[in-house]
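Ops channel
N.P.: pipeline sanity check, posting one input/output pair.
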């Protein structure tokens, strides 16, 4: 009975500690070492509940045409920007829309992507280009589902060169669940030591 009481107290203490703590999920990321046009990228998402900060870094050092005019991602069933975007150059606008090879941002396939596009000068600096969206509200579970971007250089049909990568769901672990599991295991160890 003493073992059961001590284990229960440990579990109850853990639940009380976790219930007052903010939920910060682990950071999830995807990378592509070769996008087919000479660049590589990494997208990361760090979330507290369904509010995320997302960073996309594209290394265009080896790209033949390093000018990126539009970037897009999807980390939930629907994403919306409630905060701000920091882009490599000024004059970028953000939409809840998909990316297409004709107009860049503005496609409406209903899949809830975040798409940011340059309204004036595109990011023609080359090298490492980074975009950070602070305050992305995610509907549904948080998981990286899509990364896309458009090179300003057009193909022979006048369409922009598009990178469009889809990913299988890899949901962010729920910290409360992991914490409770750890406390439960600790309670079992303590109970076992007392026997």
């Amino acid at each position: 009975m003493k073992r059961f009481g001590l284990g229960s107290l440990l579990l109850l203490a853990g639940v009380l500690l976790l219930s007052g703590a903010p939920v910060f999920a682990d950071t999830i990321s995807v990378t592509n070492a070769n996008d087919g046009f000479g660049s590589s990228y990494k997208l990361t998402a760090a979330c507290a509940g369904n509010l995320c900060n997302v960073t996309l870094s594209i290394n265009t050092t080896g790209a033949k045409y390093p000018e990126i005019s539009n970037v897009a991602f999807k980390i939930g069933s629907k994403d919306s920007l409630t905060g701000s975007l920091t882009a490599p150059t000024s004059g970028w606008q953000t939409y809840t829309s998909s990316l297409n090879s004709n107009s860049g941002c503005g496609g409406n396939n209903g899949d809830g992507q975040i798409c940011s596009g340059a309204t004036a000068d595109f990011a023609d600096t080359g090298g490492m280009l980074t975009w950070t969206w602070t305050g992305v509200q995610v509907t549904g579970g948080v998981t990286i589902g899509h990364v896309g971007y458009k090179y300003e250089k057009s193909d022979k049909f006048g369409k922009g060169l598009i990178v469009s990568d889809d990913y299988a769901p890899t949901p962010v672990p729920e910290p409360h669940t992991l914490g409770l599991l750890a406390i439960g295991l600790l309670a079992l160890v303590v109970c076992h030591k007392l026997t």
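N.P.: looks fine end to end. The radius of gyration is 22 Å.
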